[in-house]
Amino acid sequence: MRKTFFIKTTLAVSLAIFSSTAAMGQSDSIYFNTDKHGRFELKGITDKKWFQDLSNRIVLHGYAQAGYTYSHQGGQNKNTFDLKRVLFWAEAKITDRWSFLFMHDFSSVVQEYYTDYRLTRNKALTVRFGQFKNGLSLENPLSPTAMEAIDVYSEAVTFLTGCGSDPLLGVQYGRDLGLALYGETNDGKYHYELDVLNGQGINKKDGNNFKDIITRFVYRPVLGLSVVASGQLGRGHAINTSLYNPTIAIGQDYKRHRCTIGADYKSKAFKVHGEYLNGWDGDAHSWGAYVTGAVPLGTPKVEFVGSYDFFNFNTDLGMDQHKAIAGLQYWFYKKCRLQVQYVYKSAYTADNQFIHGANHGIQCQLQVRFN
């Protein structure tokens, strides 16, 4: 009996403290009583200001991308329905300067969790700590919902930023654990970012004692135009062997450097972006370039999408690939769209071999996004 009375009393005091704190000094905001069995129950709310403030500080986002893919490769036809991404994230504004974000992909793993704190009164300097997208390249920091291609990023960006095609690093979705400093000046004309990262990817500890340094600089000379340069000095820790870099063994530390330069332009008439990228992994050198754009067809809701993409995975081994995309997309509601695209590639991998040979594909995708 004494134990039960103590638990009830403790709970009552705790609820009373919570109620008075939540009410921010306003009486009778939250009240409670006991039922006939002596159990405490929350009875009502007479002042909604605290809950309104809470809802104003938390913003929810989400999107899903799913579709159908047909491919003809090596004389074989394949087709499948696929669920590419189902992401949900919440942003919490703790104070005017301090915020927190959590993002989860229900089709894979937890993607991001970090906190931002703005050190200056303006947007000149903010510090970020946690797991987030690295700042390498023009495309990687962008959301897949803003990209024209169903394949999302170019071959070079996918390989060099850790989005998934480099076996030495594995599938890391272009994200990593670490610390970042970023900001913008001159009313957004200049933007900079400095990342200090593990270099090992998401949801794991560093594989060595070296940290990767990534820098990013954006210059916006006129409305709609952005020029983006980025670079990386790093040291990878191989988690697998790679067809593209056969001299690096599992568990080996190796040089992992990158540099990129690109531009993005958006107007009512068209939008286009392109980039040139270089990468060094151990003794292997890779490089690529791409240009991707979209043009409205009489209405902003319907666009023609086109892309040309070149990437050489290893210049010493002649692992070059050309890729072309052409298709249509229909924006039927805000950030929701239906896409149909034809994809051509001049090379592919099969049975642990790099093969110069044409392969074709048809992709369809439905995108639904809120907020």
Structure, explained:
The strands form 2 sheets. A 16-stranded antiparallel β-barrel has the order 3-4-5-6-7-8-9-10-11-13-14-15-16-17-18-19. Strands 1-2 form a two-stranded antiparallel ribbon. The protein has 2 domains: 2-45, no CATH class; 59-370, Porin (Beta Barrel), CATH 2.40.160. The model is unreliable at 1-29 (pLDDT under 50). With 371 residues, the protein is mainly β. A hairpin with a 4-residue loop joins β5 and β6. The chain has 3 helices and 19 strands. 10% of the residues lie in helices and 55% in strands.
Fill in the keyword field for this structure:
mainly beta, Porin, 2 domains, 16-stranded antiparallel beta barrel, 3 helices, globular
Topology of this protein?
Layout: H1 2-22, E1 30-34, E2 40-45, H2 49-57, E3 58-73, E4 76-93, E5 98-105, E6 110-118, E7 126-133, H3 155-160, E8 175-185, E9 190-197, E10 212-219, E11 225-233, E12 235-237, E13 253-266, E14 271-281, E15 284-296, E16 302-312, E17 320-333, E18 336-350, E19 353-370
Antiparallel strand pairs: 1-2, 3-4, 3-19, 4-5, 5-6, 6-7, 7-8, 8-9, 9-10, 10-11, 11-13, 12-13, 13-14, 14-15, 15-16, 16-17, 17-18, 18-19
Please name the CATH topology of the largest domain: Porin
* Overall CATH class of the largest domain: Mainly Beta
Radius of gyration: 25 Å
Task: Return residue spans where pLDDT drops below 50 for at least 5 consecutive residues.
Answer: 1-29
- The strands making up the biggest β-sheet line up spatially as 3-4-5-6-7-8-9-10-11-13-14-15-16-17-18-19
Report the CATH architecture of the largest domain: Beta Barrel
| β-sheet strand percentage | over 45%
Nearest-integer average pLDDT: 89
Identify the CATH homologous superfamily of the largest domain.
Porin
